[in-house]
């Protein structure tokens, strides 16, 4: 890649059959699909990707030691860590004065502007990025970095849209995120979306068929989180994505019409609140007179995965109730569900919720909630009621069983372990009941979460702060570089 302080626009005439418009950043918008081909920003050559890459900000919320280690690992090197807000540091988590959030957000904005205006990023044309992630649990999990149309998405879903939330959005969690994004020149995605592609027609061929992608980077991830490799999708590959996604969308629309429901072409798998933040900021920009058709903030950078990829695994998100006595939680659930807690045994029944009373598994109890609802639905309803009646209790959301047992060691916290959400029932469940409760599932363990690597400009300026020049396409010259 050519290194440059300013970003230029490259447009390939090969994209003409599948796009009629481009964003103000010169990003092709795929006709008939809620997708555009993003102008991805990657760190320039010489920047250590192993220090640049950082896990999603909503991970390890109860483990500040992880983030302290990450901070030491990064040192003075440019890093995505410096332009995100790890939720472990939120005032609502630490108990600090809310003004501390504002200070951190101000510093994030300062560093982000420095990165955008400096020589951190290298010039590259609009292109999808195919991603192959290896973790300690799966040998391969494939994805595709693209930008999705926020006008085709609603987090409160008053009218079902083509891009569909799968979990309830807690609006109260948006303000800190909005404060970061509303004036930010860049976005970094940890949003993961899924498509229902049992034939593996869209993403998988990008790694198999010659000419559809080219290797761009490979990076070992912090603290044994595996490895991620990126492959720039060619113009031929972009045509493949447009063609196969259109076919998939047509199939879903036909199925929805036959079932008497609204179609859902793309579903949110992870990063629900981040996408809701992008939506809120975009609606605010529109209200202020932003170009409703071509402004880059109309689109949000995400990673698309196939629900049928063997590397895509749904894990439960467990609850810890800080300040709750185990006996009180037990009595509340027994009354609410009209059941009696059972002694702990293994294997735990598939439909069960485990109440954790301490570090010893043998002291735990098993609940079998009513079978007509998914355990996460039954449990979330009752936990919300319990917290409403016990104002001093705080809910924590934890990945993995070990942190739950660790949190319950002092006897002042009670844990609730949930069973995994059956991936084979996922789509049917969403179509049947709509959105699931907040934090209903996780796509993998914390160490398997998406790491921030790719970024994208969301202001109608290049990274030097100069207005983007209008595109001039000369079909006789194939690819035309404008404004270099």
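^ Assign residues to that structure.
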């Amino acid at each position: 890649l050519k290194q440059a302080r300013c970003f230029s626009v490259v447009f390939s005439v090969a994209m003409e059959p599948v796009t009629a418009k481009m964003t103000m950043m010169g990003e092709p918008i795929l006709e008939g699909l809620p997708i555009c081909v993003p102008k991805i920003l990657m760190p320039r050559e010489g920047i250590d990707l192993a220090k640049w890459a950082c896990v999603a900000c909503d991970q390890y919320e109860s483990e500040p030691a992880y983030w302290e280690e990450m901070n030491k690992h990064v040192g003075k090197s440019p890093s995505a860590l410096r332009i995100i807000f790890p939720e472990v540091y939120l005032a609502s988590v630490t108990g600090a004065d809310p003004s501390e959030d504002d200070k951190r957000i101000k510093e994030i904005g300062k560093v982000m502007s420095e990165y955008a205006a400096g020589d951190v990023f290298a010039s590259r044309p609009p292109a999808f990025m195919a991603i192959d992630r290896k973790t300690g649990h799966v040998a391969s999990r494939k994805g595709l970095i693209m930008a999705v149309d926020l006008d085709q998405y609603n987090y409160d879903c008053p009218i079902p849209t083509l891009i569909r939330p799968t979990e309830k959005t807690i609006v109260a969690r948006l303000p800190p995120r909005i404060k970061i994004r509303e004036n930010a020149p860049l976005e970094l995605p940890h949003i993961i979306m899924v498509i229902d592609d049992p034939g593996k027609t869209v993403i998988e061929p990008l790694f198999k068929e010659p000419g559809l992608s080219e290797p761009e980077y490979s990076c070992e991830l912090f603290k044994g989180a595996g490895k991620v490799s990126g492959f720039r999708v060619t113009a031929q590959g972009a045509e493949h994505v447009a063609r196969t996604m259109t076919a998939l969308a047509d199939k879903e629309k036909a199925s929805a019409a036959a079932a008497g429901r609204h179609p859902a072409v793309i579903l949110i798998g992870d990063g629900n609140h981040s996408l809701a933040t992008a939506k809120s900021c975009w609606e605010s920009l529109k209200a202020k007179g932003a170009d409703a058709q071509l402004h880059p903030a109309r689109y949000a950078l995400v990673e698309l995965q196939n629900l049928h990829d063997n590397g895509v695994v749904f894990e439960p998100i467990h609850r810890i109730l800080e300040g709750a006595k185990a006996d009180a939680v037990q009595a509340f659930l027994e009354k609410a569900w009209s059941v009696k807690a059972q002694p702990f045994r293994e294997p735990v029944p598939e439909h069960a919720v485990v109440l954790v009373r301490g570090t010893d598994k043998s002291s735990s109890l098993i609940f079998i909630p009513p079978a007509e609802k998914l355990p996460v639905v039954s449990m979330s309803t009752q936990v919300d009621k319990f917290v409403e009646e016990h104002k001093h209790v705080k809910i924590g959301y934890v990945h993995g069983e070990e942190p739950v047992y660790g949190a319950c060691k002092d006897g002042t916290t009670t844990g609730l372990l949930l069973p995994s959400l059956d991936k084979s029932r996922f789509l049917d469940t969403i179509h049947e009941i709509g959105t699931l409760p907040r934090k209903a599932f996780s796509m993998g363990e914390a160490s398997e979460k998406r790491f921030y690597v790719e970024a994208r400009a969301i202001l109608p300026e290049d990274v030097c702060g100069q207005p983007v020049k209008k595109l001039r396409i000369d079909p006789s010259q194939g690819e035309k570089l404008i404004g270099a």
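Residues 6 and 464 are 5 Å apart (CA to CA).
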